[in-house]
Amino acid sequence: MNALNLEEARFNMIEQQIRPWDVLDDQVLETLATTPRENFVPQRYHALAFSDISIPLAHDQVMMPPKLEGRLLQSLLLKPTDSVLEIGTGSGYLTACLAKLAGSVHSVDIFADFIEQAGSKLEQHGINHATFENTDAASGLDTPQRFDAIAVTGSLPILHHGFHELLTPGGRLFVIVGKPPIMQALLITRTGEQEWNEESLFEISLPPLINAPQPEAFRF
Question: What are the transmembrane regions (predicted)?
């Protein structure tokens, strides 16, 4: 794909996929337009970098479709001073977008190679305010740190409170909950020490986080 076709594909991704999904925030659109998604896509899928699909990654993982990435970024209402926790680094593309919109990003993933590759790519793009951790955080993260925003990039079969407690007052959590074929994207805002507001945003389907807690099996 030459440079002209590349930019046309990027423009079409924003105008035909992302905007029609009600992503209208100028800063989010600018971030998506200026973060080279093609550099984060596996080489074999380079021609599909701007397609409306979940692009396969190693370990049977996927990149979110561009429109879902856009809605996630817009929903979190990120400010330049915000600290962000990302659960599931994956390709590192969303990490890069989060870092451009916020003050700092801490991204965790169960796969060490995702962490290493994402860290290298962000460094190549001059993004130096993201940190990475190789750990299983499907049930939460053992840290005293609190975050202004949390993005969970895999779905949860059941909504648990492992991430709720990591939010600062006023902090926002984006998470997709449920089982296929229909799941709910939720925005959860911490409104008090033990109080959270839950807003249902839209229906979507996304593969679950590895080791995410499962509902108890029904017993007669």
Answer: none
Residue 1 pLDDT exceeds 80:
no
State the SS3 of the chain.
CCHHHHHHHHHHHHHHHHHHHCCCCHHHHHHHHHCCHHHCCCHHHHHHCCCCCCEECHHHCEECCHHHHHHHHHHCCCCCCCEEEEECCCCCHHHHHHHHHCCEEEEEECCHHHHHHHHHHHHHCCCCCEEEEECCCCCCCCCCCCEEEEEECCEECCCCCCCHHHEEEEEEEEEEEEECCEEEEEEEEEEECCEEEEEEEEEECCCECCCCCCCCCCCC
Mean pLDDT of 25-29: 98
Closest Cα to residue 207, out of 161, 165, 157, 170?
157
Q: Which domains does the chain have, with CATH numbers?
A: 54-62+71-204 (3.40.50.150)
Is the pTM above the cut of 0.90? yes
Query: What's the pLDDT tens digit per position in 33-70?
Result: 999 999 999 999 999 999 999 999 999 999 999 999 99
Taking the C-alpha atoms of residue 142 and residue 140, their distance in angstroms, rounded to an integer, is 7
Share of the chain above pLDDT 70, in %: 96
